[in-house]
Amino acid sequence: KNEVEQSPQNLTAQEGEFITINCSYSVGISALHWLQQHPGGGIVSLFMLSSGKKKHGRLIATINIQEKHSSLHITASHPRDSAVYICAVSPPNFGNEKLTFGTGTRLTIIP
Amino acid sequence: DTAVSQTPKYLVTQMGNDKSIKCEQNLGHDTMYWYKQDSKKFLKIMFSYNNKELIINETVPNRFSPKSPDKAHLNLHINSLELGDSAVYFCASSQDPSGGNDDTQYFGPGTRLTVL
Questions:
Q1: By CB neighbour count within 10 A (0-12 exposed, 13-18 middle, 19+ buried), where does B40 fall?
Q2: For residue range A75-86, what is the model confidence (pLDDT) as tens digits?
Q3: Of A42, A94, A96, which is closest to B110 when you measure between CB atoms?
């Protein structure tokens, strides 16, 4: 069993739909990251959070430390949001040097 | 200007060869990383350097040797390439992780290595 699990593995939705991607982890962490990997392969960091909620444009990330769970939400989804979304966690004994990654969620938004 | 750059973008080579991938960041970050993304798209850390010193060395064959000539560069040299080394290799950088609360990692565009 992976230390970081994401669900769903694949998600297809219509443009405009509200999207939720979930991440659960089984270890203690100092922070959780959400990354976006574009179809061309490039990786972009979206959020790093250790508590509460962060918002950037149409993207919202939340984390519940007690439940060891985080969600990434996309409002008013658009085809350009199509990408693989990856959750990663930093263990408590390190800073961000050592990330453990989930297997990713492939999101496809249909026009 | 590109924040984290890698060269080459694509690398195709024969088994047994020695090759290097270069990474440079112009963000003034103290820490740099190498990740390997396998065919199933799973990312795994290989190495991490902070101010030119190795701080993480995961279970990676010793054919892989990172070299950091200065804190803006972290190159990856691979000896005696094997078929299983085929993957996409990503470089990343961040501020000193112990220094703050928002040390986001910035990734390079990746280098797709194909070993024939």
A1: exposed
A2: 999 999 999 999
A3: A42
Q: Do A101 and B112 touch (CB under 8 A)?
A: no
Beta bridge partners of A56: A59
Q: How far is B92 from chain A (nearest CA, A)?
A: 10
Residue A23 is encoded by which pair of tokens? 């991440």
Q: Which residues of B touch A (CB under 8 A)?
A: 31, 33, 40-45, 48, 50, 55-56, 88, 90, 92, 94, 96-98, 101-107, 109-110, 112
Residues of chain A scoring pLDDT < 50: none
Interface probe with A: pick from B104, B112, B114, most Cβ of A within 10 Å: B104
Task: List, in sequence order, the alpha helices (H) in A1-111.
Answer: none
What tokens appear for B61 in the block?
């064959």
Span B21-57, pLDDT tens digits: 999 999 999 889 999 998 777 888 898 888 777 877 7
pLDDT of residue A110: 97
Q: What's CA A10's distance to the chain center, in Å?
A: 13
Smallest Cβ distance to A95: which of B92, B103, B112?
B103
Per-residue pLDDT at B42: 82
Tens digit of pLDDT for each residue in A22-35?
Answer: 999 998 888 899 99
Strand partners, B53: B50
Q: Which residues of chain A make contact with B25, given a CB cutoff of 8 A? A: none
